[in-house]
Design a protein that fits this description.
The protein folds into four domains: about 90 residues, Thrombin, subunit H, CATH 2.40.10.120; about 100 residues, Beta Barrel (Thrombin, subunit H), CATH 2.40.10.10; about 90 residues, Pdz3 Domain, CATH 2.30.42.10; about 90 residues, PDZ domain (Pdz3 Domain, Roll), CATH 2.30.42.10. The protein is built from ten helices and 24 strands.
Length: about 450
């Protein structure tokens, strides 16, 4: 029998009421789903916990002083739609790492991280973003010193790299690929590795004392610290070999300290003056100079009168075989040792002269005023003068290397060692830098054309 709609609605309401009242008649309600209660926070492991390994303690001590560095630069590039006749600007950003070495906001990093940057931001471990300015930078040593406007920052001083043990555990802290405060560990694989220390097209200066480690170092680690298990910063991470896993390099702390002091005082790595022109000994040179009894070393080709080299008693055809107690395999070994020592501090060198081994003490000095331009005139045969923002060749000595290469008065000298030069002082400094490289690279303009010329020094 069909019921009217009103009766059907009343029956539904009654059924709902009975269902609601069932628990009161002794039936249990459905059980609530289980819940996972949060565990109480565990206390930090005690100081003697096996988890708090030496690596952990090093990271806890050093990582607050490690920062992320973001550098922004404006780059001009040719516009491909106009055949290179016009250029357009784009923003380029590089990421790197740095180490706070002073509570007043001094930060050490790699020069290539901040080169050409119009804006630099330093991010600390606690998330603060601080604008930074460059106090000094040196492209050859690949080190720069920054300053942020902050005080009482956590910091770690540069340690010593003179007592390192091959095979000891080391820790690298940095920001590889922008991943903040990444920690890797490994062993100190080798000391005294030779690497090019410049990224320009000029003749290369090579430092020969890089630290090699298998602790992972990737793009972004540049400028971060390499630390031993005593918590000492033994190096500044700087380079990797492309395509090679497990091979990274760091600038030793002893050399980094010497360079940082120069950057703070002069804004650049000040050149040193020994008055020695050195060249790496090879079989052909040994036969030419009658030095077959010496296997390796750096030959003295020239000693400038009145120079520190002359005062040390060095002569032409002497072969430097050790310096500061380390063997000399190439000219760069001498340069590296001198740039690691304090300016004016005597460094012991061992030389071979006519088959006899002798010891001398060589103290590099600051170059005298105007020395760079004097060397340009005497060694290359070029005299220049400034003229409305450019350097003009005023005279070329007959029979000089410059004359042999075709230079003539009126040519414009626009760059030295890959750096644009517009003042005599700029050019003089590049000539002094070239002494360490063993050669000077000049860009000379004549009319619409520019020529790249190299001269041995």
């Amino acid at each position: 029998m069909l019921r009217p709609p009103a009766v059907r609605r009343a029956a539904a309401v009654l059924a709902l009421a009975l269902a609601t009242a069932l628990p009161a008649c002794g039936q249990s309600p459905p059980a609530a789903p289980p819940r996972l209660e949060p565990e109480p926070a565990a206390p930090p492991p005690p100081a003697d916990s096996v988890r708090r390994t030496p690596v952990v303690r090093v990271v806890e001590r050093v990582s607050p002083a490690v920062v992320n560095i973001s550098a922004e630069a404006i780059v001009r590039q040719p516009d491909p739609f106009f055949g290179g006749s016009f250029s357009r600007q784009r923003r380029a950003q590089s990421l790197g790492s740095g180490l706070i070495v002073g509570a007043n906001g001094l930060v050490v990093t790699n020069a290539h991280v901040v080169d050409g940057a119009s804006r630099i931001v330093v991010t600390t471990l606690d998330g603060r973003e601080l604008e930074a300015e460059v106090l000094g930078s040196d492209r050859d040593s690949d080190l720069a010193v920054l300053k942020v406007d902050a005080s009482r920052l956590p910091h770690v001083e540069l340690g010593s790299s003179s007592r390192l043990l091959i095979g000891e555990t080391v820790v690298a802290i940095g920001n590889p690929f922008g991943l903040s405060h990444t920690v890797t560990s490994g062993t100190l694989s080798a000391r005294g590795r030779a690497l090019p220390a410049t990224r320009s097209g000029a003749p290369e200066l090579r430092f020969t004392d890089f630290l090699q480690t298998d602790a992972s170092i990737n793009p972004g680690n540049s400028g971060g610290p390499l630390v031993n298990l005593d918590g000492e910063v033994i190096g500044i991470n700087t380079a990797i070999i492309s395509g090679a896993d497990g091979i990274g390099f760091a600038i030793p702390a002893d050399r980094a300290r010497r360079i940082v002091n120069d950057l703070l005082r002069y804004g650049e790595l000040a050149p040193l003056w020994t008055g020695l022109r050195l060249i790496t000994l090879d079989p052909a040179l040994a036969r030419e100079r009658g030095l077959e009894e010496v296997e390796r070393g750096a030959v003295v080709l020239k000693v400038w009168p009145g120079s520190p080299g002359e005062e040390a008693g060095l002569r032409e055809d002497d072969v430097v075989v050790t310096i500061a107690g380390q063997p000399v395999a190439a000219r760069e070994d001498v340069t590296t040792a001198l740039y690691t020592a304090e300016v004016g501090a005597p460094v012991e060198v061992e030389i071979v002269r006519s088959g006899e081994r002798l010891r001398r003490r060589l103290a590099a000095a600051r170059p005298p005023e105007g020395l760079g331009m004097e060397l340009l005139r005497r060694a290359v045969g070029v005299d220049v003068r400034p003229d409305r923002g450019v350097l003009v060749v005023r005279d070329v000595a007959a029979g000089s290397p410059a004359a042999e290469r075709g230079l003539r008065p009126g040519d414009l000298l626009v760059a030295g060692n890959g750096q644009r030069v517009v003042e005599v002082d700029h050019l003089g400094r590049e000539v002094l830098r070239a002494l360490d490289r063993g050669g000077l690279h000049l860009v000379v303009q004549r009319g619409r054309y520019a020529y790249n010329l190299s001269f041995p020094l």
